[in-house]
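Internal tracking record. Fields below are filled automatically when a chain is submitted to the structure queue. Please do not edit lines marked as system-generated. If the sequence contains nonstandard residues, flag them in the REMARKS field before resubmitting.
Queue: standard
Priority: normal
Entity type: single polypeptide chain
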Amino acid sequence: MKKYFILCLTAFFAFSCENDDSVTPVVEPAVIAEFKTNLSELNLFTGNLNELSITPHAFEYQLNTTLFSDYAHKQRIIALPENTSMEFDGNDLPIFPNNTVIAKTFYYNIDDRDLSLGKTIVETRILIKLNGDWETGDYKWNEDQTDATLDLVGSEIPVTWIDANGTNNSTTYKIPSDTDCFTCHSTFNRATPIGPKLRSMNFEIDGVNQLEQFTNNGQLTGFSDSTPVTRLPNWEDTSNSLESRARAYMDINCAHCHIPGGYCENESTLDLAFETRLEDSNIVERNFSIQYRISTTIEGIGMPFIGTTLLHTEGVDVIQAYLDTL
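SYSTEM-GENERATED OUTPUT FOLLOWS
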């Protein structure tokens, strides 16, 4: 009888709480579109910062072909101001409203075979659109993995990890300076995002097209059908042609500098955008130069010359195989 009474009392209080209009729901603070001293002050994440739990005011996006960064894993998120959306503007970047925050966090799993062992977070790169222009900033994570501090001068961090094959790896990871960030993100001398082009996000995730999902969520407007949008191939997908895989890899890893208006426009004749026809790209004419530069990590010679310290063997093999066909 006593046990029955306790169960009834518990059920009564549970019902009362569920129907108590005085209970105030937790409201997450808005994202701050400003470069504060600490990453935590931007409100991009909830709970313990190192869990990288995205605030409800932001959303994750993925790319079909990704930039190589010394085998680091990345979390990519976009935070739009309340009651705004990205606007469709063709295959390239959508139109982002002012006060948009784009964040990319770089980390290494302690062991890629066992994610329960945790990860080492190295940096979070931030782009903020203010008054029509994009501004860059980089946050370096502390050793305790409790927060990250704005770091505009760059630094070097030793990292170790075990990959999916069980191999122990190590490198001295280079966090870029703000000048380095602008070098890669500069188009016609204005900072611009690189990754979130519609053609790079136009693919299915768990059976749903990512762009169409953005539209359903109200995050992308002026867009209804992904079919007319170009799709940047996944360079790792061997069902794609060798040419498309190699050109997709060069697009995401090299074309931000090697395009009209890019940082290397005056130093190189290459135009490595995926859409550029082969005969207009100068890839054939610069074949041997490309082979040489992608096959070395010698500073000032190896490509890309910012953002990596390790040779990306898998990517180099694909490019080399393609160049051998030309």
